[in-house]
Amino acid sequence: MIGHALETFCTGLRILLGCLMATLAIPVGMQVISRYTGLIPTYLWTEELATFIFVWVVMIGSMLAVWDGSHFDVVITKDAQSPLGALIQKGVVYVAILVFALLFAWYGIEYAKVGSIQNSVMMRANFLWTYITVPLAGLVWALFAGYRLSEAITTYSQAKKAMS
Residues 105-128, buried b or exposed e (16+ Cβ, 10 A)? Predict the structure, then answer.
């Protein structure tokens, strides 16, 4: 049930990511057109907006990568043949992600506080909108890594039971 809820959450993140990528094309397209054709004036706010959106795209992409297991994971040993070996291999990765995720979440709060007292020059938007991505990503990484770790433990338990 929790896995289904998290998968639904990830589907929402994927949709949001797609919308942000489509939205990112607008200010970037305006920048390209204004620089190379002169058909429209150069708007400086487009660069700030593109940066804000890009930060969100990167952080949401990293959240999805943790869920999919396609990020933060470097294979340096052969795949384990025993259930215990598989648990250890996966467990080390998920615990490492959890540690870094909690560090991002904890220290990201102070980072976001710094952003909350700053505004962008052209758009006059509060930087909290981008700085908040750090603790938010840390919390989501921790949630996903914790769930994947629990899955690995359950898989090990089931394999151990089947061997008995």
Answer: beebeeebeebeeeebeeeebebb
- For residues 104 and 153, give the distance between their C-alpha atoms in angstroms, rounded to a whole number: 25
pLDDT tens for the 164 residues of the chain, in order: 899 999 999 999 999 999 999 999 999 999 999 888 878 888 888 999 999 999 999 999 999 999 998 875 677 778 888 889 889 988 998 999 999 999 999 999 999 999 999 999 888 899 999 999 999 999 999 999 999 999 999 999 998 888 87
How does DSSP assign 53-121, residue by residue?
HHHHHHHHHHHHHHHHT-SS----SPPPSSHHHHHHHHHHHHHHHHHHHHHHHHHHHHHHHHHHT-B-S
Number of domains, the chain: 1
Q: Which three-class secondary structure state does DSSP give residue 159?
A: helix
Which tokens hold the place of 92?
């080390």
User: CA end-to-end span of the chain, whole Å?
Assistant: 28
**Domain range for residue 113?**
2-163
CA angle 97, 51, 130 (to 5 degrees): 55
Instruction: Look up the pTM and report it.
Output: 0.89
